[in-house]
TrEMBL record:
GO terms for molecular function: RNA polymerase I core promoter sequence-specific DNA binding; zinc ion binding. Residues 283-457 form the Rrn7/TAF1B C-terminal cyclin domain. The keyword Glycosyltransferase does not apply. It comes from Russula ochroleuca. Residues 126-215 are annotated as: Disordered. Signal peptide: none annotated. This is RRN7-type domain-containing protein.
Length: 586
């Protein structure tokens, strides 16, 4: 056994190796000098070292299967399909109106042009769905750069595989490498320029998280507004309530639109599309007027397409006849409407501005943006208030040449109005409307058949029933004639010949004379929620509001504004007459 070395410092023979540093030190901690530690590390496996080889598993991994319906459309395709459904519904609505109202074929052409302009003027028009879907499925043009390079390599490979001299091979290799480098440089430079110039990412494929404003306010109500603009273009004297009644009777395709769409389109609709296409109820008069006015303003601002004015003469005559009036009331209502400067356009901005007699004169009046039929109705109501008062006190003209003498007495007029109202409320369109509270048990036998037809149109749709569903129609057919149809004259026909001229100057009880028409005119404030209208006034207001399709408060609000405007005009006329009288006297 070889003797151990002694420490040069302390002479100790006890040595140990530090595990951390690898130095050899004695028991006293002195380091052994001139000692070299060598380690041999290799990263190559030896010839006889065993290796563990991992084989690729052939078992297919179970991925997460999507339970989504592949037939449903989302994103741009859903928006495009939404407008396709609206267009098909519009075509069916146009066909129904042409058949019911005997409209000319030009009505369909006008609706088609208005539909094209409507789509072009939208803030977010329908996207080009076929192009977007093609980009989503096939990718963007920039993704094909590598494929083009691979095709160039494949075209160049046959040339490289051919037998040629060494110098030719080198030259061909250089040319191929130059072409590949040039293609790579062009693709990279084009991508850099696109990123620098646009600063926007390329279009993402469909369903990649891009949020779109799918429907907004472009629902079935916009189709009805477009139909209204088309009717104004043909100068048809129709009201908004005419279309609403057709919708509530399921004659005009609006409610339950899935019955009017083919199955090939319905199966691609999501629940959000169905909800956007299926309104719960018919539109209101004021809401429909707002959409129609917005469409007319957009057409004028974008394409300079001017919507004609209202055909006021037949519309005013409809209003007068609805209130039980005649030609005299028509002339008086036309005069009041002229004094009030009622605009006959869909929006007051589409009408000419008012004449500026002074610098502070306004260009338009308040309540000029109400539906035109509502404005004409309020004008006729103002005439009735001036003629009859409708406040419990009779008005009798003292001059025999007063046109009021040609009107019936107040008692006779209220009888006519109540008869007209009763006939109107018993009509099937009003009885079957959403605002009616009538029960089926209260219907007459003549109305039950039409009610069953209404239920069939609303529940089953316009499609022809199958052979197994025609049992009732085959074995229990209904008679063509209506049971219980009465041929009695209406209230207007019964009392039209008995419109007696009121006597002038009849003294009231107590020796006081009666007031003249237009005297002590009362203006009712619409903000007085605790106020109670007189009975006669309430009858006229409630029936007029029901006939137009608005509430009583709207009639009172518009009437108050027009009455104050008329009072201002009357004050100006009196001041002008006083000035002219002083000029003549001087």
């Amino acid at each position: 056994m070889a003797p151990r070395r002694k420490c040069n410092v302390c002479g100790s023979q006890h040595w140990h190796k530090e595990p951390a540093t690898g130095l050899v030190v004695c028991s006293e901690g002195h380091v052994l000098q001139n000692y070299l530690t060598e380690t041999y590390e290799t990263y190559e496996h030896g010839a006889l070292q065993g290796r563990k080889r991992a084989l690729k598993s052939t078992r297919e991994k179970r991925g997460r299967t999507s339970k989504a319906n592949s037939e449903l459309y989302y994103g741009a395709r859903a928006q495009y399909l939404h407008f396709q459904c609206l267009q098909l519904l519009l075509r069916k609505q146009v066909a129904v109106l042409i058949q019911l109202w005997k409209l000319p074929n030009e009505f369909e052409i006008i609706c088609r042009d208005l539909w094209a302009l409507h789509l072009s003027s939208l803030p977010s028009p329908p996207p080009p769905e076929p192009l977007l879907h093609q980009q989503a499925t096939r990718g963007h043009n920039g993704d094909h750069d590598s494929e083009e390079i691979d095709e160039q390599v494949e075209k160049a490979s046959p040339e490289l595989s051919g037998v040629s001299p060494p110098e030719d091979d080198d030259s061909k290799d250089d040319s191929v490498i130059d072409e590949l480098l040039r293609a790579l440089s062009e693709s990279s430079s084009s991508e850099d320029s696109r990123n620098d110039d646009k600063g926007q990412p390329r279009p993402k494929p469909e369903g990649s998280g891009r949020k779109l404003k799918l429907f907004g306010s472009n629902g079935p109500a916009s189709n009805v507004a477009l139909l209204m603009v088309a009717c104004w273009t043909l100068r048809l004297p129709i009201m908004y309530l005419d279309l609403i009644r057709l919708i509530e009777s399921y004659n005009l395709p609006y409610l339950e639109p899935l019955h009017h769409l083919p199955a090939t389109m319905v199966r691609h609709l999501t629940k959000h599309n169905v909800q956007a296409l299926s309104p719960a109820h018919a539109p209101t008069t004021l809401g429909l007027h707002s959409l129609t006015a917005r469409l007319a303003r957009r057409l004028l601002g974008s394409y300079k397409v001017h919507t004609p004015e209202l055909n006021a003469a037949p519309m005013l005559w409809r209003v007068v006849r609805a209130l039980g009036g005649g030609p005299v009331l028509y002339n008086l209502g036309k005069t009041v409407a002229h004094v009030l400067s009622l605009p006959l356009t869909l929006h007051h901005t589409l009408a000419p501005r008012l004449a500026h007699l002074k610098d502070d004169d306004p260009g338009s009046h308040k309540f000029d943006n109400v539906p035109p039929e509502l404005a004409l109705l309020v004008a006729v109501v103002i005439v009735l208030k001036m003629v009859y008062g409708l406040d419990g006190q009779a008005r009798v003209p003292k001059n025999s040449i007063d046109p009021v003498c040609a009107l019936p007495r107040l008692k006779d007029y209220l009888t006519i109005l109540k008869g007209v109202k009763e006939t109107y409320m018993r009509s099937n369109q009003v009885a079957f409307s959403a605002s009616s509270n009538i029960s089926v048990l209260e219907l007459e036998e003549s109305a039950l058949d039409e009610y069953l037809e209404l239920c069939q149109r609303g529940l089953l749709g316009p499609e022809t029933l199958r052979s197994d569903q025609r049992t009732l129609q085959d074995f229990f057919p209904l008679k063509s004639g209506r049971v219980g149809a009465s041929s009695e004259k209406t209230a207007i026909e019964r009392l039209e010949e008995d419109q007696r001229v009121p006597r002038a100057g009849v003294p009231m009880e107590g020796g006081t004379e009666q007031r003249e028409p237009g005297e002590a005119y009362a203006v009712y404030s619409s903000r007085d929620v605790l106020g109670v209208l007189p009975e006669d006034m309430g009858v006229v207001i409630s029936y007029g509001a029901r006939w137009i399709g608005v509430d009583d408060e709207t009639i009172l609000k518009v009437s108050e504004g027009y009455e104050r405007r008329l009072s201002t005009w009357l004050g100006r006329q009196k001041r002008r007459e006083g000035i002219e009288g002083r000029r003549w006297s001087s």
